[in-house]
Design brief:
The chain has about 425 residues and is an alpha+beta fold. The protein has a domain of about 290 residues: Up-down Bundle (Outer membrane efflux proteins (OEP)). The chain has 9 helices and 4 strands; from the N terminus they run H-H-H-E-E-H-H-H-H-E-E-H-H. It has a 4-stranded antiparallel beta sheet, with no helix packed on it. Strand 3 and strand 4 form a beta hairpin. The longest helix is centred in the first third of the chain and has 67 residues. The radius of gyration is 37 Å and the shape is elongated. The two termini are about 55 Å apart.
Length: about 425
Protein backbone atom coordinates (compact mmCIF):
# COMPACT_ATOMS: atom_id res chain seq x y z
CA UNK A 1 0.00 0.00 0.00
CA UNK A 2 2.83 2.36 0.87
CA UNK A 3 4.55 1.61 -2.43
CA UNK A 4 1.29 2.27 -4.27
CA UNK A 5 0.94 5.66 -2.56
CA UNK A 6 4.51 6.57 -3.47
CA UNK A 7 3.91 5.65 -7.11
CA UNK A 8 0.67 7.62 -7.11
CA UNK A 9 2.40 10.70 -5.71
CA UNK A 10 5.23 10.33 -8.22
CA UNK A 11 2.66 10.22 -11.01
CA UNK A 12 1.01 13.38 -9.76
CA UNK A 13 4.38 15.14 -9.62
CA UNK A 14 5.16 14.01 -13.17
CA UNK A 15 1.79 15.27 -14.41
CA UNK A 16 2.35 18.61 -12.69
CA UNK A 17 5.81 18.92 -14.26
CA UNK A 18 4.40 18.09 -17.70
CA UNK A 19 1.66 20.69 -17.29
CA UNK A 20 4.21 23.29 -16.23
CA UNK A 21 6.46 22.47 -19.19
CA UNK A 22 3.53 22.72 -21.62
CA UNK A 23 2.91 26.36 -20.71
CA UNK A 24 4.11 28.86 -23.30
CA UNK A 25 6.68 31.38 -22.08
CA UNK A 26 7.57 34.71 -23.67
CA UNK A 27 10.94 33.66 -25.09
CA UNK A 28 9.40 30.66 -26.88
CA UNK A 29 6.60 32.80 -28.27
CA UNK A 30 9.05 35.35 -29.67
CA UNK A 31 11.29 32.66 -31.18
CA UNK A 32 8.39 30.91 -32.86
CA UNK A 33 6.94 34.16 -34.17
CA UNK A 34 10.25 35.24 -35.73
CA UNK A 35 10.59 31.84 -37.40
CA UNK A 36 7.02 31.41 -38.64
CA UNK A 37 5.36 34.80 -39.01
CA UNK A 38 4.28 35.11 -42.67
CA UNK A 39 4.92 38.86 -42.89
CA UNK A 40 8.46 38.39 -41.64
CA UNK A 41 9.05 35.55 -44.07
CA UNK A 42 7.81 37.82 -46.86
CA UNK A 43 10.29 40.48 -45.71
CA UNK A 44 13.12 37.95 -45.95
CA UNK A 45 11.99 37.11 -49.48
CA UNK A 46 12.11 40.82 -50.37
CA UNK A 47 15.77 40.84 -49.37
CA UNK A 48 16.37 37.89 -51.67
CA UNK A 49 14.56 39.69 -54.49
CA UNK A 50 16.63 42.84 -53.94
CA UNK A 51 19.79 40.74 -53.93
CA UNK A 52 18.79 39.23 -57.27
CA UNK A 53 18.22 42.68 -58.75
CA UNK A 54 21.59 43.82 -57.42
CA UNK A 55 23.33 40.87 -59.08
CA UNK A 56 21.54 41.55 -62.34
CA UNK A 57 22.49 45.24 -62.26
CA UNK A 58 26.18 44.35 -62.40
CA UNK A 59 25.83 42.17 -65.50
CA UNK A 60 26.73 43.55 -68.93
CA UNK A 61 24.31 43.02 -71.82
CA UNK A 62 24.86 39.88 -73.85
CA UNK A 63 26.78 40.15 -77.13
CA UNK A 64 24.88 39.79 -80.39
CA UNK A 65 25.65 37.14 -82.99
CA UNK A 66 25.40 38.86 -86.37
CA UNK A 67 24.93 37.16 -89.75
CA UNK A 68 24.86 39.15 -92.99
CA UNK A 69 24.83 38.56 -96.67
CA UNK A 70 25.56 41.58 -98.89
CA UNK A 71 25.63 42.20 -102.65
CA UNK A 72 23.41 39.20 -103.03
CA UNK A 73 22.89 38.47 -106.79
CA UNK A 74 19.57 36.64 -107.02
CA UNK A 75 20.02 35.77 -110.70
CA UNK A 76 23.71 34.77 -110.58
CA UNK A 77 24.74 32.14 -108.05
CA UNK A 78 22.67 33.23 -105.03
CA UNK A 79 24.68 32.98 -101.80
CA UNK A 80 27.71 31.72 -103.67
CA UNK A 81 27.97 35.09 -105.39
CA UNK A 82 27.42 37.25 -102.28
CA UNK A 83 29.56 38.63 -99.49
CA UNK A 84 28.62 36.40 -96.53
CA UNK A 85 29.81 37.45 -93.11
CA UNK A 86 29.45 36.31 -89.51
CA UNK A 87 30.38 38.48 -86.54
CA UNK A 88 29.79 39.56 -82.96
CA UNK A 89 28.41 42.86 -81.66
CA UNK A 90 28.75 44.16 -78.11
CA UNK A 91 27.23 47.20 -76.45
CA UNK A 92 29.64 48.85 -74.01
CA UNK A 93 27.97 50.98 -71.33
CA UNK A 94 29.26 54.49 -70.85
CA UNK A 95 32.00 54.55 -68.17
CA UNK A 96 30.56 54.82 -64.67
CA UNK A 97 27.05 53.57 -65.46
CA UNK A 98 27.58 49.95 -64.40
CA UNK A 99 29.48 50.96 -61.29
CA UNK A 100 26.59 53.16 -60.22
CA UNK A 101 24.08 50.42 -61.08
CA UNK A 102 25.99 48.05 -58.79
CA UNK A 103 26.03 50.60 -55.95
CA UNK A 104 22.32 51.28 -56.37
CA UNK A 105 21.62 47.55 -56.21
CA UNK A 106 23.72 47.17 -53.07
CA UNK A 107 21.90 50.07 -51.42
CA UNK A 108 18.55 48.49 -52.34
CA UNK A 109 19.63 45.32 -50.54
CA UNK A 110 20.64 47.39 -47.51
CA UNK A 111 17.24 49.13 -47.49
CA UNK A 112 15.45 45.78 -47.66
CA UNK A 113 17.58 44.40 -44.81
CA UNK A 114 16.89 47.35 -42.52
CA UNK A 115 13.20 47.18 -43.37
CA UNK A 116 13.30 43.50 -42.38
CA UNK A 117 14.87 44.30 -39.03
CA UNK A 118 12.32 47.05 -38.46
CA UNK A 119 9.50 44.60 -39.12
CA UNK A 120 11.15 42.10 -36.78
CA UNK A 121 11.29 44.67 -33.98
CA UNK A 122 7.63 45.50 -34.53
CA UNK A 123 6.74 41.80 -34.50
CA UNK A 124 8.60 41.22 -31.23
CA UNK A 125 6.85 44.26 -29.77
CA UNK A 126 3.45 42.97 -30.86
CA UNK A 127 4.17 39.49 -29.50
CA UNK A 128 5.22 40.91 -26.14
CA UNK A 129 2.17 43.18 -25.97
CA UNK A 130 -0.22 40.33 -26.78
CA UNK A 131 1.58 38.06 -24.31
CA UNK A 132 1.36 40.63 -21.51
CA UNK A 133 -2.30 41.33 -22.22
CA UNK A 134 -3.09 37.61 -22.21
CA UNK A 135 -1.08 37.11 -19.01
CA UNK A 136 -2.93 39.97 -17.31
CA UNK A 137 -6.25 38.56 -18.52
CA UNK A 138 -5.35 35.19 -17.00
CA UNK A 139 -4.50 36.87 -13.71
CA UNK A 140 -7.82 38.72 -13.80
CA UNK A 141 -9.62 35.44 -14.52
CA UNK A 142 -8.03 33.96 -11.41
CA UNK A 143 -9.17 36.97 -9.38
CA UNK A 144 -12.70 36.62 -10.80
CA UNK A 145 -12.67 32.96 -9.78
CA UNK A 146 -11.65 33.92 -6.26
CA UNK A 147 -14.44 36.49 -6.12
CA UNK A 148 -16.98 33.91 -7.31
CA UNK A 149 -15.77 31.43 -4.67
CA UNK A 150 -15.91 34.08 -1.96
CA UNK A 151 -19.41 35.09 -3.04
CA UNK A 152 -20.46 31.44 -2.93
CA UNK A 153 -19.10 30.95 0.57
CA UNK A 154 -20.72 34.21 1.67
CA UNK A 155 -24.07 33.08 0.27
CA UNK A 156 -23.75 29.79 2.16
CA UNK A 157 -22.87 31.60 5.38
CA UNK A 158 -25.81 33.97 4.99
CA UNK A 159 -28.07 31.02 4.28
CA UNK A 160 -27.07 29.45 7.58
CA UNK A 161 -27.74 32.73 9.40
CA UNK A 162 -31.16 33.00 7.79
CA UNK A 163 -31.96 29.41 8.73
CA UNK A 164 -30.93 30.17 12.30
CA UNK A 165 -33.12 33.27 12.34
CA UNK A 166 -30.16 35.64 12.71
CA UNK A 167 -30.69 37.34 9.35
CA UNK A 168 -33.57 38.36 7.13
CA UNK A 169 -34.54 36.51 3.94
CA UNK A 170 -33.64 39.45 1.72
CA UNK A 171 -30.02 39.14 2.84
CA UNK A 172 -29.87 35.63 1.45
CA UNK A 173 -31.38 36.83 -1.84
CA UNK A 174 -28.85 39.67 -1.97
CA UNK A 175 -25.98 37.26 -1.35
CA UNK A 176 -27.23 34.85 -4.04
CA UNK A 177 -27.52 37.71 -6.54
CA UNK A 178 -23.94 38.71 -5.78
CA UNK A 179 -22.79 35.13 -6.30
CA UNK A 180 -24.55 34.81 -9.66
CA UNK A 181 -23.15 38.16 -10.70
CA UNK A 182 -19.63 37.00 -9.84
CA UNK A 183 -20.14 33.80 -11.87
CA UNK A 184 -21.28 35.84 -14.89
CA UNK A 185 -18.28 38.13 -14.62
CA UNK A 186 -15.97 35.12 -14.48
CA UNK A 187 -17.45 33.91 -17.78
CA UNK A 188 -16.74 37.35 -19.27
CA UNK A 189 -13.18 37.15 -17.95
CA UNK A 190 -12.72 33.84 -19.81
CA UNK A 191 -13.72 35.57 -23.03
CA UNK A 192 -11.26 38.37 -22.30
CA UNK A 193 -8.46 35.78 -22.14
CA UNK A 194 -9.32 34.34 -25.55
CA UNK A 195 -8.86 37.55 -27.57
CA UNK A 196 -5.15 38.24 -26.83
CA UNK A 197 -4.39 34.52 -27.09
CA UNK A 198 -5.84 34.45 -30.61
CA UNK A 199 -3.78 37.51 -31.51
CA UNK A 200 -0.66 35.86 -30.10
CA UNK A 201 -1.32 32.63 -32.02
CA UNK A 202 -1.73 34.57 -35.28
CA UNK A 203 1.54 36.43 -34.72
CA UNK A 204 3.26 33.09 -34.11
CA UNK A 205 1.99 31.80 -37.45
CA UNK A 206 -0.57 29.48 -35.86
CA UNK A 207 -3.92 31.25 -36.41
CA UNK A 208 -5.94 28.01 -36.18
CA UNK A 209 -4.32 26.78 -32.97
CA UNK A 210 -5.66 27.37 -29.48
CA UNK A 211 -2.97 28.39 -27.02
CA UNK A 212 -3.14 27.19 -23.43
CA UNK A 213 -1.90 28.80 -20.26
CA UNK A 214 1.05 31.16 -20.31
CA UNK A 215 4.08 31.00 -18.05
CA UNK A 216 5.58 34.16 -16.63
CA UNK A 217 4.94 37.15 -14.44
CA UNK A 218 4.18 40.78 -15.10
CA UNK A 219 6.96 43.12 -14.04
CA UNK A 220 5.93 45.47 -11.25
CA UNK A 221 8.80 47.91 -11.76
CA UNK A 222 10.66 49.05 -14.87
CA UNK A 223 13.56 51.45 -15.22
CA UNK A 224 12.93 54.55 -17.26
CA UNK A 225 15.86 55.51 -19.50
CA UNK A 226 17.53 58.90 -19.70
CA UNK A 227 15.48 60.63 -22.37
CA UNK A 228 18.36 62.44 -24.10
CA UNK A 229 20.54 59.34 -24.17
CA UNK A 230 17.63 57.22 -25.32
CA UNK A 231 16.92 59.66 -28.17
CA UNK A 232 20.53 59.48 -29.36
CA UNK A 233 20.51 55.71 -29.18
CA UNK A 234 17.20 55.50 -31.04
CA UNK A 235 18.24 57.82 -33.88
CA UNK A 236 21.53 55.96 -34.24
CA UNK A 237 20.20 52.39 -34.16
CA UNK A 238 16.54 52.25 -35.11
CA UNK A 239 16.03 50.28 -38.35
CA UNK A 240 13.55 52.80 -39.73
CA UNK A 241 16.20 55.53 -39.48
CA UNK A 242 18.85 53.27 -41.00
CA UNK A 243 16.48 52.29 -43.81
CA UNK A 244 15.73 55.96 -44.49
CA UNK A 245 19.46 56.76 -44.51
CA UNK A 246 20.11 53.94 -46.97
CA UNK A 247 17.17 55.13 -49.06
CA UNK A 248 18.61 58.65 -49.17
CA UNK A 249 22.00 57.32 -50.29
CA UNK A 250 20.29 55.20 -52.94
CA UNK A 251 18.35 58.24 -54.20
CA UNK A 252 21.58 60.24 -54.46
CA UNK A 253 23.16 57.42 -56.46
CA UNK A 254 20.11 57.24 -58.72
CA UNK A 255 20.40 60.99 -59.35
CA UNK A 256 24.05 60.58 -60.34
CA UNK A 257 23.02 57.68 -62.57
CA UNK A 258 20.29 59.74 -64.23
CA UNK A 259 22.81 62.46 -65.04
CA UNK A 260 24.88 59.88 -66.92
CA UNK A 261 21.89 58.54 -68.84
CA UNK A 262 22.15 61.03 -71.76
CA UNK A 263 25.68 59.84 -72.50
CA UNK A 264 25.26 57.10 -75.09
CA UNK A 265 26.35 53.48 -74.83
CA UNK A 266 28.62 52.55 -77.70
CA UNK A 267 28.06 49.40 -79.73
CA UNK A 268 31.06 47.71 -81.33
CA UNK A 269 30.95 44.96 -83.92
CA UNK A 270 33.44 42.86 -85.80
CA UNK A 271 32.64 40.38 -88.56
CA UNK A 272 34.54 38.20 -90.98
CA UNK A 273 33.58 36.32 -94.13
CA UNK A 274 34.33 35.76 -97.77
CA UNK A 275 33.64 37.59 -101.00
CA UNK A 276 32.90 34.71 -103.32
CA UNK A 277 32.92 36.93 -106.40
CA UNK A 278 36.44 38.16 -105.68
CA UNK A 279 37.42 34.86 -104.11
CA UNK A 280 39.00 36.52 -101.07
CA UNK A 281 38.36 36.90 -97.35
CA UNK A 282 36.88 40.11 -95.99
CA UNK A 283 36.62 41.79 -92.56
CA UNK A 284 34.22 44.44 -91.30
CA UNK A 285 34.23 46.66 -88.21
CA UNK A 286 31.25 48.58 -86.92
CA UNK A 287 30.82 51.33 -84.32
CA UNK A 288 27.32 52.58 -83.46
CA UNK A 289 26.70 55.62 -81.24
CA UNK A 290 23.14 56.81 -80.48
CA UNK A 291 22.66 60.53 -81.01
CA UNK A 292 20.96 62.16 -77.96
CA UNK A 293 18.88 64.57 -80.01
CA UNK A 294 15.39 63.97 -78.61
CA UNK A 295 15.77 61.79 -75.52
CA UNK A 296 18.29 63.38 -73.18
CA UNK A 297 16.77 61.77 -70.08
CA UNK A 298 15.06 65.01 -69.12
CA UNK A 299 12.24 63.20 -67.32
CA UNK A 300 14.54 60.72 -65.57
CA UNK A 301 16.72 63.49 -64.18
CA UNK A 302 13.71 65.43 -62.96
CA UNK A 303 12.26 62.32 -61.32
CA UNK A 304 15.60 61.46 -59.71
CA UNK A 305 15.96 64.96 -58.24
CA UNK A 306 12.44 64.73 -56.81
CA UNK A 307 13.15 61.27 -55.38
CA UNK A 308 16.31 62.59 -53.73
CA UNK A 309 14.27 65.35 -52.08
CA UNK A 310 11.63 62.81 -51.02
CA UNK A 311 14.30 60.61 -49.43
CA UNK A 312 15.68 63.52 -47.42
CA UNK A 313 12.22 64.57 -46.27
CA UNK A 314 11.38 60.95 -45.39
CA UNK A 315 14.47 60.72 -43.20
CA UNK A 316 13.54 63.91 -41.37
CA UNK A 317 9.94 62.71 -40.98
CA UNK A 318 11.08 59.37 -39.53
CA UNK A 319 13.34 61.09 -37.00
CA UNK A 320 10.59 63.52 -35.97
CA UNK A 321 8.02 60.74 -35.65
CA UNK A 322 10.28 58.51 -33.57
CA UNK A 323 11.28 61.42 -31.32
CA UNK A 324 7.62 62.24 -30.72
CA UNK A 325 6.79 58.58 -30.03
CA UNK A 326 9.66 58.37 -27.55
CA UNK A 327 8.44 61.43 -25.64
CA UNK A 328 4.86 60.14 -25.52
CA UNK A 329 6.01 56.67 -24.52
CA UNK A 330 8.19 58.05 -21.75
CA UNK A 331 5.15 59.83 -20.30
CA UNK A 332 3.10 56.64 -20.57
CA UNK A 333 5.81 54.67 -18.82
CA UNK A 334 6.07 57.26 -16.07
CA UNK A 335 2.31 57.39 -15.48
CA UNK A 336 1.93 53.61 -15.57
CA UNK A 337 4.85 53.13 -13.18
CA UNK A 338 3.42 55.61 -10.71
CA UNK A 339 -0.02 54.01 -10.86
CA UNK A 340 1.36 50.50 -10.39
CA UNK A 341 3.43 51.64 -7.43
CA UNK A 342 0.43 53.38 -5.86
CA UNK A 343 -1.79 50.34 -6.25
CA UNK A 344 0.91 47.92 -5.10
CA UNK A 345 2.01 49.77 -1.99
CA UNK A 346 -1.12 51.64 -0.91
CA UNK A 347 -4.45 50.88 -2.56
CA UNK A 348 -4.35 47.07 -2.73
CA UNK A 349 -3.04 46.58 0.85
CA UNK A 350 -5.63 49.00 2.24
CA UNK A 351 -8.47 47.38 0.33
CA UNK A 352 -7.48 43.90 1.52
CA UNK A 353 -7.12 45.12 5.11
CA UNK A 354 -10.57 46.73 4.96
CA UNK A 355 -12.05 43.51 3.59
CA UNK A 356 -10.58 41.46 6.44
CA UNK A 357 -11.83 43.91 9.08
CA UNK A 358 -15.34 44.06 7.66
CA UNK A 359 -15.52 40.29 7.39
CA UNK A 360 -14.43 39.88 11.02
CA UNK A 361 -16.92 42.57 12.05
CA UNK A 362 -19.69 40.85 10.12
CA UNK A 363 -19.01 37.57 11.88
CA UNK A 364 -19.12 39.51 15.14
CA UNK A 365 -22.42 41.16 14.19
CA UNK A 366 -20.94 44.67 13.84
CA UNK A 367 -21.61 45.04 10.09
CA UNK A 368 -24.45 44.11 7.81
CA UNK A 369 -24.42 42.06 4.63
CA UNK A 370 -24.30 45.09 2.37
CA UNK A 371 -21.12 46.24 4.09
CA UNK A 372 -19.30 42.97 3.51
CA UNK A 373 -20.54 42.59 -0.09
CA UNK A 374 -19.56 46.13 -1.04
CA UNK A 375 -16.18 45.83 0.66
CA UNK A 376 -15.21 42.52 -0.92
CA UNK A 377 -16.33 43.68 -4.38
CA UNK A 378 -14.32 46.87 -3.98
CA UNK A 379 -11.30 44.80 -2.99
CA UNK A 380 -11.52 42.59 -6.05
CA UNK A 381 -12.18 45.52 -8.38
CA UNK A 382 -9.02 47.11 -7.01
CA UNK A 383 -7.05 43.94 -7.78
CA UNK A 384 -8.50 43.76 -11.29
CA UNK A 385 -7.55 47.39 -11.91
CA UNK A 386 -4.07 46.65 -10.58
CA UNK A 387 -3.57 43.98 -13.25
CA UNK A 388 -4.80 46.44 -15.90
CA UNK A 389 -2.12 48.88 -14.76
CA UNK A 390 0.49 46.12 -14.80
CA UNK A 391 -0.49 45.24 -18.35
CA UNK A 392 -0.14 48.89 -19.39
CA UNK A 393 3.27 49.14 -17.72
CA UNK A 394 4.64 46.00 -19.37
CA UNK A 395 3.18 46.89 -22.76
CA UNK A 396 4.77 50.34 -22.59
CA UNK A 397 8.08 48.71 -21.69
CA UNK A 398 7.83 46.40 -24.73
CA UNK A 399 7.14 49.37 -27.00
CA UNK A 400 10.10 51.24 -25.51
CA UNK A 401 12.42 48.28 -26.16
CA UNK A 402 11.30 48.21 -29.79
CA UNK A 403 11.72 51.97 -30.15
CA UNK A 404 15.27 51.84 -28.77
CA UNK A 405 16.08 48.76 -30.89
CA UNK A 406 17.48 47.00 -27.85
CA UNK A 407 16.92 43.53 -29.34
CA UNK A 408 18.64 44.36 -32.63
CA UNK A 409 21.79 42.33 -33.21
CA UNK A 410 24.17 44.55 -35.18
CA UNK A 411 27.89 43.96 -35.89
CA UNK A 412 30.50 46.65 -35.35
CA UNK A 413 30.56 47.54 -39.04
CA UNK A 414 27.14 49.12 -38.74
CA UNK A 415 25.65 46.85 -41.39
CA UNK A 416 22.68 44.59 -40.70
CA UNK A 417 23.46 41.24 -39.10
CA UNK A 418 23.10 38.04 -41.07
CA UNK A 419 19.51 37.01 -41.58
CA UNK A 420 18.11 33.62 -40.65
CA UNK A 421 17.28 31.41 -43.62
CA UNK A 422 13.78 31.70 -45.04
CA UNK A 423 12.00 28.37 -44.46
Amino acid sequence: MKAFCLLFLAGLVALADAAAQSKLDLASAVTEAVANNPELRAARSRIEAATGRAVQARVWPNPNLELSSEQFPPDRGGFNGAQNMVGVGQTVPFPGKKALDAKIGAQSVTVAEWEYFGRELELVRDVKSAFYRALAAQKKLAVSGQLAELARSTAEAVGKRVAAGAAADQEQLRAEVEHERAVAEMAAARRDVAEPLKTLAALMGRPRDTLGSLAGELAEQVQRPDLNLAREQMLARHPNVRAALAGRERADLELRRAKLDPYPDVSFGVAGGRDFAAREGIMAFRVSIPLPLFDRAQGKKREARANADIARYDLTAVEVRLTRELAVLDERLKAAGEQVETYRTRIVPKAEAASRLVRLGYNAGKFGLLDILDTQRTTFEVRLTYYDRLSELNTAQAELEALLARNLAEPQTGQPAALPPNP
